[in-house]
Write a structure and sequence with these properties.
binds magnesium ion; binds adenosine-5'-diphosphate; six-stranded mixed beta sheet; Rossmann fold
């Protein structure tokens, strides 16, 4: 049996009157890459925020390593978030800091490591995402794909048990997409941990996913391996995968 890294258990989320998730349950398998797919506004980013406790569900529970995080105090949540890397959709690097300083931030904030050791870890981490020797450059001096990889480096620099990626390849060309996808796979192996990737990019998902979960109208409508999802008889899944305007998904 696969181990579970995190579990959403019967979760409901609403923003004001709008119900975003209704009785949603999902297990995230440890040591695997799980891709979350679904339409814009389906609640994919919200799932990532539930998993690191940035968002509390209105009802239901969220477990990480078997521990209910919905009852945790903020101080415990801060400790939890140190073990979970987050690669933001828009990288969220500080423009006024060099790449090296950006990547070093989580180590400076959360550890007491001496500066020389931080410098060494930062350069090793940048090298692991294919960005050797860019420590002294600034975000504005790098290409979009390089900034993304620097964001990945910052997400993994503390050796987290899991990394959450929000739309890591959206809006980037196929070559950069391929490089970023490959980087996610390599980082997961290097950390020997879990990855959850929100993505629209089917080629990228087919390349990296161990499991795919499809979110639709507040629930998980399909879950399985790449082969299982591609062969799914569910018309919602097939319409999404084929990008067709004909089918049960209202457009
Ligand atoms: N802070 C918020 N306040 C109000 N509505 C929100 C907020 N965050 C998300 N939503 C709404 O919740 C739904 C799901 O959002 P999100 O998880 O960002 O979807 P996705 O990442 O799949 O595009 C969307 O309809 C969005 O407008
Ligand atoms: Mg989103």
């Amino acid at each position: 049996m696969a181990q579970v890294w995190a579990r959403l258990d019967d979760v409901c989320v609403r923003y004001g009157p709008k119900i975003v998730m209704q009785n949603l349950s999902l297990d995230i398998v440890e040591g695997a890459i799980t891709c979350i797919i679904g339409l814009s506004g389906a609640g994919k980013s919200t799932i990532l925020r539930l998993l690191n406790g940035l968002k509390k569900p209105d009802t239901g529970r969220v477990f990480v390593h078997g521990e209910d995080i919905t009852t945790m105090r903020e101080s415990e949540l801060i400790d939890l978030r140190r073990t979970i890397g987050f690669a933001f959709q828009f990288s969220a690097l500080f423009d006024s800091l060099s790449i090296g300083e950006n990547v070093a931030l989580p180590l400076r904030e959360h550890t007491k490591k001496p500066a020389a050791e931080i410098k060494k870890i930062v350069s090793e981490t940048l090298e692991s995402v294919g960005l050797a020797h860019v420590e002294d450059r600034y975000p504005a001096e790098l290409s979009g794909g390089m900034v993304k990889r620097a964001g990945f480096a910052r997400a993994v620099v503390t050796n987290p048990q899991a990394v959450l990626y929000d739309e890591p390849t959206t809006g980037l060309d196929p070559i950069i997409t391929h490089v970023l996808t490959d980087t996610i796979v390599k980082l997961r192996r290097r950390l020997n941990g879990t990855a959850v990737v929100v993505s629209h990019d089917l080629d990228s998902i087919y390349m990296m996913a161990d499991y795919i979960a499809m979110l639709f109208e507040g629930a998980i409508v399909a879950y399985g391996t790449v082969d299982e999802i591609r062969r799914s008889p569910n018309p919602i899944v097939q319409q999404f995968l084929q990008g067709s305007e004909v089918g049960p998904i209202p457009i």
